[in-house]
Amino acid sequence: xxxxxxxxxxxxxxxxxxxxxxxxxxxxxxxxxxxxxxxxxxxxxxxxxxxxxxxxxxxxxxxxxxxxxxxxxxxxxxxxxxxxxxxxxxxxxxxxxxxxxxxxxxxxxxxxxxxxxxxxxxxxxxxxxxxxxxxxxxxxxxxxxxxxxxxxxxxxxxxxxxxxxxxxxxxxxxxxxxxxxxxxxxxxxxxxxxxxxxxxxxxxxxxxxxxxxxxxxxxxxxxxxxxxxxxxxxxxxxxxxxxxxxxxxxxx
Length: 252
What we know:
By secondary structure, the protein is α/β, with parallel strands linked by helices. Helix content is 34%, strand content 26%. The chain folds into two domains: 21-106 and 206-244, Periplasmic binding protein-like II (D-Maltodextrin-Binding Protein, domain 2); 108-203, D-Maltodextrin-Binding Protein, domain 2. Residues 1-18 have low confidence and may be disordered. Keywords: Signal.
């Protein structure tokens, strides 16, 4: 009888533990400085991962990371196969599937990059891009102005490596991307010296944690994460993380 009771108790403990795990969706390719897998350390790193981990731990959750192509990442968080995404711009297209935290935890910038040696142009006015074929990644957000696909011609591909290849292969004239992520994948492809970035960035916006609306507690969880992020942003550890990953301090 005692053995049966012990078995039931262990099963209950196991169920309780599994109930504290949130499936966190990340893109198939590393996306520094927001998330990337450090093979040497054997763990996830990046400002979004670090903030999510600290906040989840405070709230009694563990995060289990699963990689998806980015367009499927949005789909899986939206349909409940994943519980949370730690790095998303808050857009009207994404809002039906997720509940966002009310405050951001970092800013992200979008830059234009080109083949090295091509004519440099001033990216402070994006209207000149209307004349060219642009490269981008499926389901990525590049700012409201650049979302107009009728004004800006875009070839969208699956990930950063494909984006670099279509640029160098001449299929697009310019490409859009997060500079640290593009630099990482260009290094891995051995072509970092073949691309150049233009200044200033064409978009800068806040990024948020997103909770799947398929969860019954989605609004409560988003509210809990919001309060925890707010508290964490007031700590020295958060300031250290911003400096470590080279991210500007938030102004709100």
